[in-house]
Amino acid sequence: MNEPSSDVKRGIPPEALEVMKRIDARRRHFSRNLKISLAGMVVLLGVGLVVLGLDFKFMGKWLGFILTGLGFTLLVSILAISLACVFSVIGALGRLSRNPIFNAMATLYVSLIRGTPLLVQVYMWYLALPQIGGALQDLGLVGIQKYLTLPAIPAGIMALAVCYGAYMTETVRAGIQSIKIGQTEAAKALGMTGGQTMRRVIFPQALRVIIPPVSNEFIAMVKDSSLVSLMGVWELSFRAIKIGRRYFQSLEMLILVAVIYWVMCIILQTIQEKIEKHMARGERGEHG
Amino acid sequence: MNNSKVMVKIRNLHKVFGKDLHVLDGIDMDVHVGEVVSILGPSGSGKSTLLRCINFLEEPTAGTIEVDGVAIKAGEKSSDHAAKILDIRKKTGMCFQSFNLFPHMTAIGNVMEGPVTVLGQSRKEATPYAEELLDWVGLSDKRDEYPSRLSGGQQQRVAIARSLAMKPKIMLFDEPTSALDPELVGEVVDVMERLAKEGMTIIAVTHEMHFARDVSSRVFIMDGGNWVEEGLPEEMFTNPREERSKQFLAHIL
Predict the structure, then answer these.
(1) Interface touch A189/B92, C-beta < 8 Å
(2) How deeply is B134 buried, as exposed, middle or buried, from its count of CB atoms within 10 A (0-12, 13-18, 19+)?
(3) What pLDDT sits at residue A247?
(4) What is the structure's pLDDT at A283?
(5) DSSP strand E in B125-179: where?
(6) What is the pLDDT of residues A78-90, one digit of tens each?
(7) Would you call A196 and B118 a contact, using CB atoms and an 8 Å cutoff?
(8) DSSP notation for B169-236
């Protein structure tokens, strides 16, 4: 199993080396051709846009204005995903809890949020919550309406965080449950409490399982953050749509904003791959 | 031997899984300080369950277990029940058939985990003893390797070092060599044997004959959730009294 590689090399006959070389060449050709194909398709898309007669000057002129909305998009997405992570961990612990009340709360949360459209939830936070505040105020909770009347951005962040938190609850729960029981037993045998076992042994391993799906959720959320435009926040897509309508050049603006989202998601995907690679340490390497 | 201190005292231990799977049927057992006990028996006889009841990885259904003076009665409703279980677990080390090393920690990280997380030592405080233990199991050079890069025998030796880092009073071995390739069994048994020579109290569920016959001070044979017989290893292997013991030993010898 662990012989030095020089011994192995000496024993490989020339015809085997020939086969190995061919397999290697085939693999290298594939990855080269894949890159060429991808680049070709992107160029083709670009050419298509030129043929359509897009007004690139117009796009260039408004690029800066639209990019100013990027700040809102990133602010909303990053705060919302951070909150969603917190909600999902609490939710997952609730779903796995043996405390009936805590468990029921988590189950209800996931069921209710997953069972209603995000669009409705956004309006709920923005338009309906103040009304609830009013009703509570009438019941005698003086001054509460002020706190339940959220400005557009906090309302959007809460809506996204609560919604994605519910979806991610199930991801986190599945990640925790995917860790073998032997790990819990080894931790307990050392004398760890339940909390220590979760924090030191289960969660770090579950994280490796949950990071890819959570990154997926984040990429989806960056795009769903455009829903805050419903409340009049001047984020990316809101700006693009406004300008497009005003000058009757919606195509240019929509393509421009689509490309911005796309580039953003490609960057996020690269970061995701980096994190995954980092998390994979300790796993058996290819040559294991 | 019988006037020395009792390390583990088990009285009338029962374990029922589900509604009617009666795995342990009224076990009594005394293990004294420094004794090395091997438990043998056909699969499904309850050996592993007994071992796992001692450190409460399985909650017994009835009976009492006492480890180093800490006694717990099954089903008791005392407020310090959980604390007593933690106490017993700190006094006991356990090695599993499937090693169960923490895959996200290096060898030394695994060994330090107990002292750091459970005993609250700093990593710096815990490092020298962890290194000493890795050296003792012969794995100094694997200090910074992750478990996936270690052979089964090496993993089990790290697991032993991990348990020893808690300075346990007693070690429980649950078929520690059953998952190993035959040529790797020796290195693990060798470590167990050295541990026995240093005076550690050991209860091992094992079918490894060298350990059971030459290292143990007493051998128990179990079937159907209770003892068939117990005795000194030389008597048990050459001249078992019970018919069931003879049948079983004929299978494995």
Answers:
(1) yes
(2) buried
(3) 93
(4) 61
(5) 170-174
(6) 999 999 999 999 9
(7) yes
(8) SEEEEESTTTTS-HHHHHHHHHHHHHHHHTT-EEEEE---HHIIIII-SEEEEEETTEEEEEE-HHHH
Can you tell me the distance from the alpha carbon of A131 to that of A133, in angstroms, rounded to the nearest whole number?
Answer: 5
Query: What pLDDT score does A12 carry?
Result: 86
Give dist(CA A156, CA A121) in Å, integer: 9
Helix (H) or strand (E) holding B40: strand B36-40
Would the CB atoms of B146 and A186 count as touching at under 8 Å?
no
Asked whether the beta carbons of residue B113 and residue A191 sit closer than 8 angstroms, the reply is no
Question: Contact, B56 vs B76, CB < 8 A?
Answer: no
Under-50 pLDDT residues of chain B: 1-2
Rounded to the nearest 10 degrees, the angle between the axes of helix A70-96 and helix A152-177 is: 40
Spans in chain A with pLDDT lower than 50: 1-4, 285-288
The set of residues, in sequence order, having a beta carbon less than 8 Å from that of A230 and lying 6+ positions away, is A119, A122, A123, A126
Tokens of B92: 């006991």
Could you report the predicted ipTM of this complex, rounded to two decimals? 0.94
CA distance A43 to A32: 17
| Residue whose entry in the numeric block shows the structure tokens 């990429």 | A219
Residue A7 has what pLDDT? Answer: 52
Is A188–B89 a contact, with Cβ atoms under 8 angstroms apart? yes
Between A185, A191, A284, which is nearest B148 by CB? A284
Contact yes or no for B94 and A189 at CB 8 A: yes
pLDDT given at position A3: 46
Task: Find, among B107, B214, B213, the residue nearest to B156 by Cα.
Answer: B107
Measure B226 CA to nearest chain A CA, in Å: 24
CA distances from residue B28 to A35, B24, B94, B224, B229 in whole angstroms, order as listed:
70, 10, 21, 14, 12
- Burial state string for B102-125 with b = 16 or more CB within 10 A and e = fewer than 16: bbbbbbbbbbbbbbbbbeebeeee
Evaluate whether A205 touches B103 at the Cβ level (below 8 Å).
Answer: yes
User: What was the pLDDT predicted at A11?
Assistant: 83
Answer whether B173's CB lies under 8 Å from B204's CB: yes
Question: CA triplet A122, A127, A132: central angle to 5 degrees?
Answer: 110
3-state secondary structure of B12: strand
Nearest CB to B90 within list A1, A182, A191: A191
Q: What is the mean pLDDT of chain A?
A: 90
Give the dihedral sign, CA A261/A263/A267/A273.
Answer: positive
Q: Which two tokens stand for residue B39?
A: 């438990």
Q: What would you report as the CA-atom Rg of chain A, rounded to the nearest whole angstrom?
A: 26
Q: Which of A179, A180, A181, A190 to mutate to test the interface with B (most CBs of B within 10 A)?
A: A190
Q: Return d(Cα A123, Cα A155) in angstroms, integer.
A: 9
Nearest residue to B198 via CA among B231, B157, B168, B236: B168
Question: B49 CA to chain A: closest CA distance, Å?
Answer: 13
Using an 8 Å CB-CB cutoff, list chain A residues near B142. Answer: none
